[in-house]
Amino acid sequence: MTEPTVHPAVEEIRKLFDLKGGLVYGEAVNQLEHALQCGALAEAEGAAPSLVLAAVLHDVGHMLHRDAAGAVNAGDDDCHELLGARFLLNRFGPEVAEPVRLHVDAKRYLCAREPGYWAALSPLSQRTLEIQGGPFSEQEAAAFEQRPHAQGAIKLRRWDDLGKKAAVATPPLSHYLALAANLPIGSTAQ
Question: What CA–CA distance (Å, rounded) separates 9 from 165?
Fold first, then answer.
């Protein structure tokens, strides 16, 4: 009997959360708590496994950046969505990577399209929005709507906004790593 194949990224992700999951970046939660809350929200809505994993890993770029908090404090964009998407693309494919890459654009889109969305953002999200280019113009918003993973990114963004509460019970990281282990390498399945 052969051993089941374990997705090679699972241990890499576990180590990254062990090393940097405790980082706090200006919200009431740390990276791990935020990731788990976003994953739980995605699961509660019945999202596809690839989108649940994207929700859990959407801020992995903050943990990959050498000093994400320092960049934000200096008023610089850490481009965490691009770092994260690059990290995830070869490991899980575009179904996980693209919503991660587009979740900042989804924030810019929602600010342009939904009255009151900006005011409902956390103070840190408002600050980073300005660093990230501010709300989309009408033309940028229309172009965003045409992107293949835009709707997934909008859902992810909403979970991102909601997943910032202290002391929320969620499944552990191992629950989501098991989900990741079941996705093919470079998955194209929804």
Answer: 28
Q: Is the pLDDT of residue 35 over 60?
A: yes
Q: What distance in Å separates the CA atoms of residue 141 and residue 121, rounded to the nearest whole number?
A: 18
Could you tell me which of 27, 25, 22, 54 has the C-alpha nearest to residue 41?
Answer: 54
Residue that wins the pLDDT comparison between 4 and 181: 181
Residue with tokens 């405790």: 22
Of 71 and 97, the one with more pLDDT: 97
Q: Residue 175 is inside which H or E element, if any?
A: helix 173-181
Q: Note the pLDDT tens digit of each residue in 104-124.
A: 999 999 999 999 999 999 888
Computed on alpha carbons and rounded to an integer, the radius of gyration of the chain in Å comes to 16
The two three-digit tokens of residue 83, written as one number: 């770092």
Query: Is the pLDDT confidence value at 25 over 70?
Result: no
79: tokens are 């481009």
The phi and psi torsions of 67 (rounded to 5 degrees) equal -160, 70
Distant-in-sequence contacts of 148-151, Cβ < 8 A, 24+ apart = 148/98, 149/94, 149/95, 149/98, 149/99, 149/101, 149/102, 150/102, 150/106, 150/109
